[in-house]
Amino acid sequence: MAYAVPHPRLSVLSTSSLPQSAADHSSPTNSSTRFSLASAPSLSTTLVTSSKPAQRPNIYDRNLNKTRLTEVSASAFAFLFSEIVQYTQKCVSGINDLERRLNTLGYRIGTRVLELMLYRQESSSKAPKREIKLLPVLMLIHSQVWKAVFGKPADAIEKSVENADEYMIIDNDPPIERHISVPRDMSQLSCSSFTAGIVEAVLDGLGFPARVTAHNTPTTQHPTRTTILIKLEKMVLEREELLK
């Protein structure tokens, strides 16, 4: 990778601001330290004025309700996430620990995503509604949360046939997996544990505590297909029974 070498800054020192007495009393002994340039004042004024950097808007002054032109490029996100995975990998001793740490990082993002979504919902609606049933909350994550984070909704949402407390959100092409190359000896690793942390944070924030994990479920057509497994706590199912 080539890096641009910054040019040294040049400045023109003007003597127009020196006292007249100092310019008149210059002698041969100190002439080497004092100069008089007739054309320097106008030139220096132009250079100093043009060298001022343009003032950039402060990110904290942006309106949170305006989503236009606030997206991050996919290449920048992929580079940042790959660096996060590589750094985290150096701090762990196994795959399970690596997935746990990625889950923790995603959980921190999920809390902020939920806070921002609720703020925008309350600002745009005169009568904001809070979902208290499980299925609408899962559809909210499947569509709005996925679109807010990855720019597209998830591909499917399914309920486990064997276990009543398990639901699955399926993404056939996870954006965070597109530029991640997993070694063969770590084939069980799912970097989508980061996404699982986001989902877990949203569920906890909405009052539906659950344990969320990510699993690689590749197919011939979708080699990076990932399943986000949601295992709800018992209290959630008991509340669902009462709301029927």
Largest sheet: 4 strands, antiparallel
Strand order of the largest sheet: 1-2-4-3
Q: Which structural class fits the helix and strand makeup? A: alpha+beta
Measured on Cα atoms, how large is the radius of gyration? Answer: 29 Å
Order of helices and strands: HHHHHEEHEEH
- What integer is the average pLDDT? 79
CATH architecture level-2 label? 2-Layer Sandwich
Total number of strands: 4
Poorly predicted runs of 5 or more residues? 1-49
Q: How many individual domains?
A: 1
Which CATH class applies here?
Alpha Beta
Q: Count the DSSP helices.
A: 7
Quaternary structure state of the chains depicted:
single chain
- The CATH H-level superfamily is Trafficking protein particle complex subunit 3
CATH topology: Muramoyl-pentapeptide Carboxypeptidase, domain 2
Shape field? globular
Distance from N terminus to C terminus (CA atoms, Å) equals 60 Å
Strand residue percentage: 5-15%
- Helical residue percent band: 40-55%
Give a short overview.
The protein is an alpha+beta fold. The chain has a single domain (72-243), classed as Muramoyl-pentapeptide Carboxypeptidase, domain 2 (2-Layer Sandwich).
